[in-house]
């Protein structure tokens, strides 16, 4: 068995597509009526589509999982993030762990938690 994709629920699929392209360089592989597969295996699914399948409340900022990205020049990434998305909500601003890795955590446009860290 092989893990194929990670799916996150989004309110506005076009805005989310732009967000993930602007910050992480992800491009559309497939756009299929409320489901959009991006490079690296990230799937954006329209909240209305997900709601029909799940029939449960969708809880933004649930902090139960995160998308993790690595970036060598994390300071330049943070500068780009703040220039392009100045209202971004941080969980942890840029910090350095005791083992030397620099990381930052923030929410995407829909409250999905993202961590960006330097390679270990």
UniProtKB/TrEMBL annotation:
Domain (VOC): residue spans on this chain: 2-119
Pfam family, one: Glyoxalase_2
InterPro entries (UniProt xref): Glyas_Bleomycin-R_OHBP_Dase, Glyoxalase-like_dom, VOC_core
SUPFAM superfamilies, per database record: Glyoxalase/Bleomycin resistance protein/Dihydroxybiphenyl dioxygenase
Protein name as catalogued: VOC family protein
